[in-house]
Design a protein that fits this description.
Endonuclease Iii, domain 2; Endonuclease III, domain 1; single chain; 216 residues; mainly alpha
Length: 216
């Protein structure tokens, strides 16, 4: 049966952060990119798609469209053909072109480094903006919330929310600001390696004694 008695939240959080960060010391953004343009494109493509699949698609994509200016002039049908395997390719192609055109027309071809500007781009909400800001510009402006983060923060009893924006606000209060980007990656790695949705390996989890959902 799941454990019902664990230390209070304020006592648990720092230890959970420490133990998970030690266990997943290699946590990082698994998308392949070499500049802000490649990162924002990759994150947009990663919606409802694995990072592994995106990494298979982007080499040909960036060879064909090596800059935001080139992408801004892309023909949608051709772009759809390149990104087809990532799913939702029509809307993604439209968003990518729209994003690139706005970056060229409003930001002189430079991917913005401010949240308020990033979220005006097609296909870019807070999750995408947080990844770009944290992993390229090294700015801790928010806490990236994906399906892994949503599931694990609920299992750990950090929040009862399901809405990513509400979860982000909770995590920004619980986690030290300088750790926002990295700890989001740590939670993703934990979700992929140990706290797997259909078959959680609670017996291998370094925080099972601090998790109200643990079955150990």
């Amino acid at each position: 049966m799941p454990r019902t008695s664990v230390p209070p939240l304020k006592e648990r959080v720092p230890e959970v952060i420490r133990l998970l960060s030690e266990r997943h010391a290699d946590a990082h953004c698994e998308l392949n990119f070499s500049n802000a343009y490649e990162l924002i494109v990759s994150v947009i493509l990663s919606a409802q798609c694995t990072d592994k699949r995106v990494n298979l698609v982007t080499p040909a994509l960036f060879e064909r469209y090596p800059s935001v200016e080139a992408l801004a002039e892309a023909e949608q049908g051709e772009l759809e053909g390149i990104i087809h395997s990532t799913g939702f390719y029509r809307s993604k192609a439209k968003n990518l072109i729209g994003m690139a055109q706005r970056v060229v027309s409003h930001y002189e071809g430079r991917i913005p480094d401010e949240m308020e500007e990033l979220v005006t781009l097609s296909g870019v909400a807070r999750k995408t903006a947080n990844v770009v800001l944290g992993d390229w510009y090294d700015k801790q402006e928010g806490f990236t919330v994906d399906t892994h983060v949503t599931r694990i923060t609920r299992k750990l009893g950090f929040t009862r929310h399901r809405d990513p924006i509400k979860i982000e606000k909770v995590m920004m209060k619980l986690v030290p600001r300088e750790q926002w980007t990295l700890f989001a990656h740590v939670l993703v790695f934990h979700g992929r390696r140990i706290c797997i949705a259909r078959r959680p390996k609670c017996e291998e989890c370094p925080v099972n004694h601090l998790c109200p959902s643990s079955e150990v």
